[in-house]
Amino acid sequence: MARLNLAIIGVGLIGGSLGLCLKDKMGDDIYITGQCRTQESMDKAMEMGAVDFASSDIEEVVRDADVIFLSTPVLQMVPMVEKMLPYLKSGAIITDAGSTKQFIWKSLKEILPPNIYYVAGHPMTGREMSGVTAAKKDLFENKCYVIVENTGAPKEATDKICELVRLTGADLETLDIAQHDRCASVISHIPHVAAAGLVTLLNRSHGDMEACLKLAGGGFKDTTRIASSNADMWADICMTNQEAITNHLKLLQGILAEVIVAIESGDRQAVHDYFAESKKRRDSILEQTKNMYELI
Fold first, then answer.
1. Of these four, 55, 123, 263, 272, which has the most CB atoms within 10 Å of its CB?
2. Are 16 and 136 spatial neighbours (Cβ–Cβ below 8 Å)?
3. Is 32 in contact with 21 (CB distance < 8 Å)?
């Protein structure tokens, strides 16, 4: 069996973790090249064993690649593909870790030649830290990894990406592309916006800031943990999944408005029901997903 050549574009948390995992599982059966922006990142990626070779030169990284894994902020993905297209060999498969899918696919299908394939993917995992130093080989284990249906790639190309995903220990799922973006908004994008909102609320507490910080304990830290995530990545996600995110933020705004009315009017039963119903639903979700993957 021929050695697989994998190119990782953006060897940070996700790209670096994929490299660490596949190198651990496949050994010499895989050769990994990585594109990094800085010499420090290149050196660290090779030192950690996330890649065999690293460069900022896109031609050096992708020219022999069988599979190209895009792991940059979403708005950088299409321009990066445009740069690499002249150097890709026939039959190369492009996949990605982008958190929004319709934006990427609509752009790529306009520029990809018929002999270069795109298999849309989204690993539902992450950490509040970023960069290759935060990467770990078991990041994908028992986490949901979505492969989006119907992006025009032949079955053989999709099967190859699915084989690699299974090696990571992730739980493979398939979704329609529009449904993916709606669901990702609810369970990932809105929580990040909300966590940042809670930190912003603290920041705007004016004269109470010092006292608030003294009181801030595990609950506040747990609730706002994901607000420490990469700002470039999350700005791009909001710009490329605008409809779903704004629709769900308006729904959340309406829910909070109902709670405000109940509190202002002294309707204890309505406030109690709000908390009780959310507890019941969350407990049910935790039971359904037990031994599968953590909620994002």
1. 123
2. no
3. no
- Dihedral angle computed from the Cα positions of residues 261, 265, 269 and 275, in that order, rounded to the nearest 10 degrees: 40
Could you tell me the end-to-end alpha-carbon distance of the chain, in angstroms, rounded to an integer? 37
Q: Which amino acid is at 158?
A: T
Burial of 219 (0-12, 13-18, 19+ CB in 10 A): exposed
| Tokens coding 127 | 């950490």
Query: Are 8 and 18 within 8 A, CB to CB?
Result: yes
Helix axes 74-84, 231-240, angle to 10 degrees: 90
Question: Within its chain, how far is the Cα of 257 from the centroid?
Answer: 30
pLDDT value of position 291 = 47
DSSP per residue, the chain: -PPEEEEEES-SHHHHHHHHHHHHHHGGGEEEEEE-SSHHHHHHHHHHTS-SEEES-HHHHHTT-SEEEE-S-HHHHHHHHHHHGGGPPTT-EEEE--S--HHHHHHHHHH--TTSEEE-EEE----S--SGGG--TTTTTTSEEEEES-SS--HHHHHHHHHHHHHTT-EEEEE-HHHHHHHHIIIIIHHHHHHHHHHHHHHT-GGGHHHHHHH--HHHHHHTGGGGS-HHHHHHHHHHSHHHHHHHHHHHHHHHHHHHHHHHTT-HHHHHHHHHHHHHHHHHHHHHTTTT----
Structure tokens that stand for 220 in this block: 């506040």
Look-up: residue for tokens 């992450």? 126
265 in Cβ contact with 216 (< 8 Å): no
Q: What is the pLDDT of residues 215-258, one digit of tens each?
A: 877 788 888 888 988 888 899 999 999 999 999 999 999 999 99
